[in-house]
Structures are given as C-alpha cells and as structure tokens.
Amino acid sequence: MKRGFFFLAFAGLSFCLSADSFTFSADSVQSVLATGKEKTVLSGHAEVLSDKITVSADTIEISGKNYSILTCEGHVVADDKKNGIHLAAPRLTYDRDRSFAILDGPATLEDSVNHVVLKADWIQDDGDQGITVAQVDVRILKEGLACRAEYAIYRRKEHRLELSGAPRVVKNGDEYRATRMIVDTDSEEITLEGSVSGSVHADTSKSTPPAGGQPTGAAPDGSSASVAPASAPTGAEAAPPASGQTSGQPAAPAAPSDGQAAPQPGASQ
Fold this sequence. Notes:
Layout: H1 2-18, E1 22-25, E2 28-32, E3 39-50, E4 53-63, E5 69-80, E6 85-95, E7 100-111, E8 116-126, E9 131-142, E10 145-155, E11 160-164, E12 168-171, E13 174-177, E14 180-184, E15 190-194, E16 197-199, E17 223-227
Antiparallel strand pairs: 1-3, 2-3, 3-4, 4-5, 5-6, 6-7, 7-8, 8-9, 9-10, 10-11, 10-12, 11-14, 12-13, 13-16, 14-15, 15-17
C-alpha cells in the first residue's frame, strides 16, 4: 500500500511539471497507467488544489492530456480563486488548462466580484473569457434585483446579462416581462425587447404612474424600451403659471354665471 502511494506521488510530480502545479488527497486512490488511458481516481473526501482552482467532491477522476481534466461527482464544491467564482453542483467537469467548467444538476455560481448569484439546472462557465451560459430554471440574484428565465448568458467583464425563454425581472418590487431582456448588472438598467408587460408600484408622493396603465419602460409589441431609475422632481421644480398670469399674482375672478361682467378691482359693489 505504501509503495502504491509512493508511485502515485511520483506520477503526480510528473504532471505537475507539465501543467499548473497541483496536489491531491483522498481516502483512497486508484490509478490506471495504460498508454492513452491514464487516469487517477480519488474516492472519499477527494480534493484537488492547484494554482487556479480548489475542488472537493466525493469522487474526482483526473485524466486527459497533462491530467488537465477533472471529473467530479457528489457534493462538488469548487473555488476559482483567480476570477472570484464559487461553484457548487452534484457533478462538475473542469478543464484546468482552459479554466472551463460544466456543472450538471441543480448548480450554483457565485460571482463575488460583481455580487451576483446564478442558479440553474445546467451551467457552463468559461473562466478565461468571463462568460457563463445557463439553461433550465435559471435564476439570477443581486441585491434589489431578481431575474428568472430558461436561458441566460452572463458576460461578467461587460456586466451584461442576456435573458430569453419567458424572462422575468423583479427590481425593487417592480416586475417586468418581455420576449428578451438585457440587464446591466452594474447600473441595473433593463432593456426590454419584443412583447413587453409588467407592473410598477409607483410612489404617488414623488411621481405620477405612466399613462394608460403601461409599465415604466414598456413598449408596444415588436419594439424595445429601456428601464432606468427615474429621479423625482425637486421642490424648486414647480408647475409653470397659467398663460398670462404672473408668478405670485392671484388669478382673476371668474365671470358670474348670469352673464354679468365680473367686478374690477377697486370698483364699488
């Protein structure tokens, strides 16, 4: 048994030199050394630590050229330290050379840099490009913002979230729906495309709801609109006086209903 672990340690050293350095540990280790089928299987509290990522799972299979492919199953947790990404799923396949991950099952991606949490049944993350693709029951959460869709592309470097497949966004209590939606996760501006609907809980003490019952940012079918926070008018922005009336001057009295001329100022009654 000791001899087997010594051999694995030596083999590990060889592929450490050909790729980014990493170490591994587990309750048990099995290795296949046949040419073209080389792999190492870690079972029980398996863990792989490299310069780019730390992965823990029930089992981890290390294979591929330069042992760059990690196939993980059971309570998988991974931390991409370089990009500030935390991953969790029942199954994960990770390419260390490309920083490329595929998560199966109810999966979670947490972006600590942009404070965004993404959940879906299937997630593909390109760490080098900063692009995440998610499918089926997609949910994206950020403080004051919640998004749902069946398909999403999250471009972290551009702070851009593209939603399709019955997308819905709730922002500070206001709800928006459209055929396709684009969300700026930094400014929280929302662009709605296609068939648009929604509901806005306007603060009547500060502003007036949109006319016609149309939600803020809503647009006719086939068009698009953008939604951004609107500032309320200040106290100095009072309504202009009526035509012909000087600011601060009282309005002239209305004419009597019987057709009699209105009394002029200073005239005796």
